[in-house]
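In this supplementary section we document a worked example of the pipeline. Step one takes a protein sequence of length 495 as its only input; no multiple sequence alignment statistics are reported here. Step two produces a three-dimensional model, which step three serialises into structure tokens for compact storage. The input and output of this example are shown verbatim.
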Amino acid sequence: MPKHNQFIKKLQSKFLAVNNKLENFFNGLRSLKSNIKKIKFTNNSKAILFLGISVILILSYFLIPTFYDKNEVKDKIQNQILKNYNIEIKINEKIDYSLLPKPHFVAKNIAILRNEKEIGLVENFKVFIATNSFFSKDSFKVKDLVFQKTDFNFYKDDLIFFQELLKTEPSDNKIIFKNSNIFFKDSYDETLFINKIKKSEFYYDSINLVNVLSSENEIFNLPYKLVIKNDKFNKLVDSKFNSKKIRLNVENIVYYDEETKNGLLDILFINKTTSLKYELKKNSLNFVTQNQKNIYDGLIEFKPFYLQANFNYEGLSTKHLFNNDSILIELIKSELLNNQNLNININLNVKDIINIDELNDLFLKLEIESGDINLSDSYVMWKDDLIVNLNESLISYDQGEIFLTGRINVDIKDINDFYSSFQVNKKFRKKIKQIQFDFNYNFTQEKINFDNLIIDKKKNENIEEFIDDFNLNTKVFNKVTFKNFINEFFKIYFG
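The serialised model returned by step three reads:
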């Protein structure tokens, strides 16, 4: 009985508060009316009065949603979002109404669900509403949705969440995600990698009749843009990927009404355009180039992820491979390749090194396994006279600097051209068959260190002292430094 009385008192106090507000409002109107009667209006004052009354009426109309029952509003928002966009949300906290920049409701810490499982938590949520039906809360209509600071926890099957958004029925409304993160997780609930969403928009392009996803993202410190268009009438998906940092543009068109999907992929890579023909199956993807000059082919398996590919070039500049702003260097800096779940085997064949006349027939064997980047068993020819073999080689990234560490074996067929190219003094030109040494090259500082140098299976004390001095005093390794090194090397060895 005491609890019942307490409830009745609270209810009465609420009614009294509302009644007082209404009474004050109408008393104010009566006062305004009596004051208006006492005033003689000019044409200007009438216009001002009309304008003022119009503003009050309009403002009053837009404030009507503040009187809605907030629990009913929650239910209507949740039901309409599920019906219109196939997004299941749960509003756990209070919901508030805001008038600017246009009428909308706001809520904090809402959950995004899929199959009754929470896949995302939204820190700030805005739902904009139609402004033509405020008098009846039953005519309440949801329009644009804005999810701010959303943390998604995605497992391999949860990506369908975004795929389903591209299948929604056409409308004038937008779904926007801002400053959000997608945490991709494995079966052990460990985070594999994080995709940062700066801004993503889902909308319907009424001119071209397609559903569109336009997104600005970042993964492994690598910014990129992604635009996906779903043409439901022609049953095709047009995707465009762009990353200025690694100078990579990819455009793909695929028809999805076939079990095995065949498509054409246009890639702008290192300022070269390539068209790839591919066949996509359930667990794999095969591809081959349409270009007859530079030929690529490969296989990607998804479970587990494995990439095997061959790239064959008639001519290629090493600047595109090893400069500080090259695609390979930028990928290493981004730590995209430093992933325990990546298994990659790439063979790069280049017939002619464009920027270095003496080099040709480059074979670069790139293996990535469990985060290790291995270049062992690679080689390049110095004209037809020297074979430079790269063995026991690894690329590492440490404290913002990239290192290539390994062993080089130089097999010499005819060294005369080599001597001539570096203008070695004729009295120091003697025949040797093999040179072997360890090295550590810093790509960031363009500095190299040599060690354990062996000529024709023999060490030389004078050469060892020379190498130690070179490592200690050389600041930058370039063409001039290399030429001076070669001349001094043979001078000391044969002098």
